Amino acid sequence: MERPAWAPRSIDISVPSVSRMYDFYLGGSHNFEVDRVAARRAMEFMPGLPKIMQANRAFMRRAVRYAVEEGITQFLDIGSGIPTFGNVHEVAQQAHPGARVVYVDHDPVAVAHSQAVLEGNDDADVVAADLRKPEGILSSPQVERLIDRNRPVALLLVAILHFVEDTDDPYSAVAELRDALAPGSLLVVTHASYDGIPLPQERAEGTVDVYRNIRNPLIMRSRDEIARFFEGYDMVEPGLVPMPKWRPDTASEDEDPYSFAGFAGVGRSA
Amino acid sequence: MTAEPGGPEDRLRRFATIWSRAVFPVTSTSLTRPDFEELLLPLAHRLRDALRARAFDAAAAKGIGAALIEAHCTDPEALSRTLDCVDAYLVLYCGDPDAPAEAQEALRTRCSRLQHAMAAGFAEALRERTLAEQETISQAALTAQGAVAHALHTSEARFRAVFEGAAIGICISDLDGNVLQVNGALLRMFGGSENLVRGRNVVEWTHPDDAPQVWRLYDELVRGQREHYHVEKAFYRPDGTVLWTNLTVSLLRDADGRPQYQLALMEDTTERRLLNLRLRYEATHDALTGLPNRTLFFERLEKALAAGEGQRFGLCYLDLDGFKTINDSLGHAAGDRLLVEVADRLQSCATAPGEMVARLGGDEFVALTTGPDTERKVDELAGRIMNALVTPISVDGRELTVRGSIGIVEGPVGERGPAEVLRSADITMYRAKSAGGNRFELADPEADARAITRHGLTTALPTALDRGEFFIEYQPLVHLGDGTVHGAEALVRWLHPQHGVLGPDRFIPLAERTGLIVPLGRWVLEEAVRQARSWQERHDRSGPLRINVNLSPCQLTHPGLVADTVAILEQAGLEPDALCLEVTESALIGADDSLLKPLRRLAEMGVDIALDDFGTGYSNLANLRRLPVRVLKLDRSFTQSMQQYPADPVDLKIVEGIVSLAHSLDLAVTVEGVETGAQAEQLRILGCDTAQGWYYARPGPPERLHELSLLDATG
């Protein structure tokens, strides 16, 4: 008998995955040919895409360290993808041994990979869940085990919100998470935008088209639209800025121009 | 780390800085450039050591190349830039500027060989890492697929369990109707034989009871024009019995929306259907006789009366004569057996299409015939019914003769409703019964109308008394000797809200039949006695005025008659001898002592008893002695001829004889219906004592009598 209509579809690795493309941009080999084809196509329009990803990783590294400095030792990283290097648990546990991390992704391959990477690490785990359904994340056994909801949490939404369309109401999902976490929690966000891309918009739209074609639309939002995600949060200095400008360790003259695309920011909930 | 400016450490640091500046832009590291430089510094140390080592150590150089991969410098450009940097600056910053030329040359050669080994180490590590990562991601994909497959398997197992364990029958077939899969419940419904269901085509599953739309809905579904349909459908089981189902068929589409399968869900309703039919039968049939009951009869009659133009109907309404007597004397069980036999006989009378017999309840049956020719057929039907009852019915060894009265209604359909038709039949049946029974009568609109009015008056009577719709008129009784007002007769009237003033002949018989005559009669007596007392108070000079009140046969037998009368007289303060109760002659025919006893009691108290309508009841004149009567009221038929002059001599002789007889028995004689002076004079000559009639006064309100009496007193 054929697969009945009500059964879930199997993993189709002939379809590009944004997390494996992300890994490819970062020089990794956790990807398949379809992912590389799509990623190279996107890079035809924006050759500096890897630099944007690199800037994302660098920002996340600084944000995690900032959180630890602020006394936060539990992290919820939604849209974690395929953790190749410089991951939240590496950075956090280096800065504060025993820091707890829960990764969340809805790509079953990314989740399986994370499970392999995190094997033996009692303070980190991964949940197969979807940002669009926060209740599924918050009620997961992994979150219940590792996250103390009475203490502040650093919620990382790095390079994920621009994959949630308005029809799925990302603002409500973010608000629901905010309400579920203890006061003093940090919201760490990076988001794609046409602002800061050192190319004419029409060209950048070519990249957006690639993502639309692989059924993973990339939603470019304006700075104001991105700022709305921080409703209920006090922005941490220097506010919502291009990634290299958020609390840089060194002068930013070394930075690639592409790394100024999009916005990054951290907010602290009241 | 501090280093002496220009010293070896400082020079090494400067090499590392140049190296990191060259490579950083092509790395993917999340480190900052200064951090990255710190990462390269130990590698620079190892490079310097390898450059200066006595023997060439390829492994050390390879390790440095591999270390670049670990630092996430996986881009080949990173190697290229590294080698450029080593080639140009390693000997310069890490060599010995003071060494002789051949030593310098040896360092350059060593540097070249180091680059070759570094490249090999980089490539080897990159290859290892690539393979490892490919392996990891493939494993992850496999694991994920396994998890999904497991979830799918679990889900499929769950659905299979649902499919197999469902209590309703499930059948999946393709769009051509070929059965692909059925579950156990469906097999059981069809009798459990698998090969009779599997491999078959659903379009073969027709049944004569299929509703017309069943297969049209099916065609629409398989063509993709309909998503589902729901019908009640019968199937043949392999053994030929019928399976009734509630059937829901849905169209299953593939992921792209193309019709793919049809899914049938069926619920076995055979038992429920049988039960429904049984309940329906019980609700529409009489438990005793098995005949259709009132409910079913009304349905049929309603249908018959709604038939098309040119159609007629005929209805026989049968009520057994004297059935109550049989029930009372032989018991209900015998009565029931009689009814069953009657039902069987009736059933055999109405066997033609369009005919039916039903039991409405008790001993009431109806037979219906329909068609264009019921004028003839209904007569025949009634005849057959009467005939069927002729042969006595044997119950408990007794031969019972059963008779019935039938009311027949016949007519074109579409004019009357079932209730109206049945009422007319009922009225007609009663007409047949009051005409003596054992006959049938045909409905007649006028007789119906009379009966309906009578019925309306009967039902309105009880409330009429409560609402005070009755009133009393008084007709004077005049002394023939001196022309004085001697008293008055109380005559009750009904001021009906619709019909106006009604005389006693319109409602007294009805009141007697319903028993209302007792309270009504008591009310009349109270009113009249009270009125008589009030006349006396205002008019005592002319002696006591008497009051005559009619007493119905029903009141006569009422046990409270004497006590009520006494109480009423006492309450009003009227002497008993001021009251005269009028009783019809017919009520006293054949009266025995128990009936006369209350009258005697009243007479002993001083109440006068008058024999009303005397001369119409063939009474035994000798009997008059026995009766406690003081007055004879001569029926108006005797005096009618005296209105003309000369009067009929025979009538004169009769009246003279009666008066003489009465006087010899010490009875007074009153005459009614006196309309002329000649009449009055004649009657006075004949010796009658008192008279009433239009000649003196019509019945009227009490004040009129008072005035007459005053006139009489002053005149």
Automatic annotation (TrEMBL), chain A:
Keyword tRNA-binding part of the UniProt annotation: no
Quote one Gene Ontology molecular function term: methyltransferase activity
Q: What name appears for this protein in its UniProt entry? A: SAM-dependent methyltransferase
User: Per its UniProt record, what SUPFAM superfamilies does this chain match?
Assistant: S-adenosyl-L-methionine-dependent methyltransferases
- Keywords for the protein's UniProt record, in alphabetical order: Methyltransferase, Transferase
Superkingdom, according to UniProt?
Bacteria
Alphabetical list of Pfam families matching this protein: Methyltransf_19
Keyword Transferase in the entry? The reply is: yes
Q: Name one GO biological process term.
A: methylation
